Structure formats: structure tokens, C-alpha cells
Amino acid sequence: MTTLAAPRGRRFRPARALLYLVMLFVCAVSLFPFFWMVVTSLKPDADIFTRTPRFLPVEPIVSRYTALFDGSVPRQFLNSLIVAGATTVITGVIALLAGYALARFHIPLRRHLLIVILSIQMLPQTVLVIPLFVALRTTGLLGTYQGLVLSHLALTVGLATYMLRSFYLDIPEELEEAAMVDGASRFTAARLVVFPLVWPGLAASSIYGFITSWNELMFSATYMQQSERETLPVALQQYFSSYYSDWGGVMAASVIFTVPVVIFFLLVQKRLMRGMVAGAVKG
Q: Which residues cross the membrane (predicted)?
């Protein structure tokens, strides 16, 4: 009597099952803080500090969210969106052009220039606060959107440029040379041939610039002295005082604070994943 073997695609594979379990565990660990943040924002204060935590609130408190939209949070949300959006666009443009120049042109002391660019990223943020404060005050940009965007560029442009340079190094120069042989200028060849191939790197640097600017607190708290222009990270400090901390309000505001980052990541996730893997090949 012969037995039929199970179809090849339906065989039970312990290694694959273990891989799925590990992936499920990693996803659960990664998403649990966001889940707990949402749940805590809906709990009464008594349930937040109880010794026997409840995963789901019995009577959700939605008034915290309505209070946010009735206050100054919409304006602060718009401020953060303006600053983070402008920082992301300018970072992408500068990194796109500077990365191309560092990858294609024979610039004197190019290696040393790359070291300087990366060394700026290694500086503690506190070291940059006073020099940037003096520069912004001298130029009259203190307390303006433009001044805050310029200060955020000091945190994003260096690493974004280095990331995009790595992508340019992965693209053969023969593609540009073939276009220039057909009569295209270098800029036209770069615009039509090279730039479309570097979109994954641009997506990776864009999400980095957006998250860095969106979460930045120190520069925003120091330079945005006008309350109508303060950003959301600065606004979150109003929930803390010397004697009391409104953790429910903090969690509700943090949920609103996290939504744009999640949406932006979902929009560029495919290009971002491809970009992060491909960009790590060459340095």
C-alpha cells in the first residue's frame, strides 16, 4: 500500500513556523507601547495608578481628546507640521544634490569632508544650542519658523547626505555616460537617469528628517519663545509640574503626536525598507 506525500507547499516546516512565531513576538513587543499609550489615555486616573493594571478601561474617558482639540493643540500641531515638513523637503533637496556631488565629482579632500559631515552628527545637541541661539538672534530669526527649520537642518542634513551618497555609489556611472554620449548634459543625465534610481534613499532620508524634526524638543523649547509658534513637543511639558503630572493627558496628546509619524511611515514604507537595506551596502 502506497502513501501519498503531502504537497510540497503544504508541508509543515518547523523552521518557518519558528520564524513566524519570532516575527509575531517582535511585532507584539513593538506595538505594545502604542497600545498601552492609547489604553492609558482612555483610563480614569484611579485606574492608571492602580496596582492591578487593567488592559481595557471599563468607562473610557474621551473628554481628554475633546479637551485637546478645544485648546491650543491644533495650532501647536500645525506648527510642528510646518516645521517638520519644511525640514524634510529642504533636507531632501540638499542631500540629493550634495550626495551626488560627493559621489561623482573629484572634490579635494573629499574623505576629510565626509568625516567632518559625520562628526557634526556626533556632537551633542547641547553643544549646538548656544552658537545657534547667537546666530539666530543676530540674524533676527529667533522665534520664527525659519530659524527653527535652520536649527533642525543642522541635525538632519549631514546624515541624510551621507546616506544618499551611499546610494549614488551603487549606481554605475556608465548609465550617465551613455546618456551624455546621446547628447544629454550632466544635469539632464542625472535628472532623468540617476535621480529616479535613488528614490529609495531619498525616502529613507526623508523619514529620518521628518522624525528628527517632529520629535525635536531642545531647540524648539529654546528658540520658540512665542507661545503661538511653539511645537507639540514643547506643549507636552504643560502636563508636568512640580507637584502633579497629568499622565492621562500626556498619553492622549502623545497619541495625537504619534499619528502623523505613523501615516508618513506607511506612505513610504516600501521605499524605506528597500532603501535602508540597499544603502547599507557601501559607505
A: 17-39, 77-101, 113-136, 148-168, 189-211, 247-268
